[in-house]
Amino acid sequence: MLAEDRRHRLREAMAQSGIEALVVYGNAWQADYLRYVADFSMLEGHGLALLAPDGSTELYVDSIAEAERAESETAGLKIILAPDIAHAVAGRLDRIANHRIAAAPLGFLPKFLADAARGYNLEDGTKFVDRFLMVKMPAEIDALRRAAKLADDGYQVFLKAAIPGRMQFELIADIETFFRQQGCPDNFMIVGSGGQDVHAMAPPSERRIKAGDMVTTELTPAYRGYFAQICRTMVVGKPTQAQRDAHAVYREAMEAGIAMVKPGVTAADVARAENDVFRKYGLGDYVTSKYTRVRGHGLGLFVDTKPHILEDVDTVLEAGMCMIIHPNTYHPAVGYMVLGDSIVVTETGAEVLTGTKRDLFEA
Amino acid sequence: MRRGLIAWSKAELPESVFDARLARLRAQMATQNLDAILVYTNNNRTAGVSWLTAFVPYWAEGLLVVPRNGDPLLTMAFSNRIVGWGKEVSRVARFEGGARPGQAAGKYLVEIKAKTVGVADFDGLRQQVAADMAEAAPNATFVDATAEFRRARVQADPAEIALATKAGGIAHHALAQIPGRVATIGEALGLVESAARLAGAEEIYLAAAPDLAKSTAFARVEGTASAGDAFAVRATLAYKGSWVRVTRTVDTAPDAQAMHDQAVEIFAASVASLPRGDGFGRFDSWAVEGCRVAQPLEALMGSRMTDPVALAAGSLVTAQGVIEIDGRRIALAAPALIGADGFPSGILVQPDFGPR
Q1: A338, pLDDT greater than 80
Q2: ipTM strictly over 0.90?
Q3: Which of A48, A356, B20, B336 is deepest in the core (most CB within 10 A)?
Q4: What is the CATH class of A2-133?
């Protein structure tokens, strides 16, 4: 069982480091720490889990619907409905105040719970858990492969959905419906449509797709909680030469980034490999924070997990890490363009999980 | 995190609605001599900020600063490239992006010389955000203003009632797409998802009880689940910041419709018993949820609640329950309005789907 294997990894590490209780927080966005421990993804409200060295796990939620769902979707956990969750968990921790307790991610905890005035001491256990979130077990990588297949299939639906006259949110409806039909309950996606006026992807709006638009998306479906991502750009109609030329830069940059991936290099090395391609073509300004956020990021139980692929992130890559390499940014000639593939770091390099062609698609 | 259309509808939420809500909040601030009040928002605690600005975060967190006098500021943890989108879908005087909303809010408090600052749901505020704002505004005193915010927020205005009714209508329409027989629950969920999103739902969380003969517990379905002779689907749906739950039970038995009609009657009578809630005695399990600060559907009362919350007159809630009639289980949920000014509590959208 994947959930038990994850808890086992944590318990071994807790024993080695002397941690006697681990508190993890989760909500609908930052779901990974809680999912790792409790195998439950929150939709509403706060969730907090308490893992003991013997593996017993208590899950506190403040929503009636979530309590009922947790009872149905998890096994072997004690589920506690606690509408005043911060005080309820604080009361629980008071009873083990003489234990060494770590919390992750500490900065996400409700203020009352993390307040230094409480009778217990909470260590920051974020880095302690981060290592397990980043370096996956084989079964976790298998789940990411399944998610990547969903992403590929979803993009084919997207290509058919993006036709002139439709509004952005109608495209989203088609994608989400497809994922539901596949038994995939979670996905993160943003879109963009237009030309040089588009500086980023955003949540879906009522903007209509029109001929000549570049339509960008990142799809991030989950399988058993693990998110894989794909980024692609399509043109409604025939791409212009400027769009083709721009796309060639993004493809070269993404492939340079992927080629750099192997154990021992840093996230910065990968970002630099991508950005050097842009600089080579005189586009160095467009790899700065004014025009782009990251050149990729970790994937797993959270859509945007560590490490971020940036030139100032010195995280060393290890086999078993999963991430997307995406040199997404604004291009002055054509607007915001995206291209990205999910990969897993292997002993010798990168295994690409997504299989969709790296083309500038036409619709 | 599966948001759909996010847009500020000026027809449904005219500026005058926000002006009136800000005035209600400022009146509460005056009672405690607060110079400003802070309201936190993120992906799952949306309802405080959306009530005041129409803004619904897609992924990022943020803080709304409402001075007693002066312009409100909404600071969100996203890049300036996204700020244009944020301004487009919200109604707030000042909108900023940046990495640390707590720091940005603190700086604004210094700028407006706020000394006593109330924070809605202070105990539940994310620890790092609280630390950042305290560091950025070292001379401000932060106090819990949950009670003040609740007093301003709790009674629904006509715009909010209209949105809850529309949200309930979208959920009802979406659930009505489920045919009498489906091979898998995924088939049913796909139909509901499509109809809801095409109708403009901002979000829809779907949960199902795939075989009511075995269990009435609702779960998020992952993978393939076959549908029993009787199953139920619950749609938790948001539209323009208004959240509701509507549940449909699908039962292929010949006499199921009559039992369902009876269940709906009992459910309506039970809702009418609110705010007391003593009419829910016939239900095996039941719950009433609603928004008081920022969590859209906060647990208020029900069969699992040991410490129920008193329901305020004129507040919006969602009621749900599972009842057994002649051996068949029926799950129901619908938005409701708690009675006020001589009007009894009542369901806004009937959970009645008619003959199949």
Answers
A1: yes
A2: yes
A3: A48
A4: alpha beta
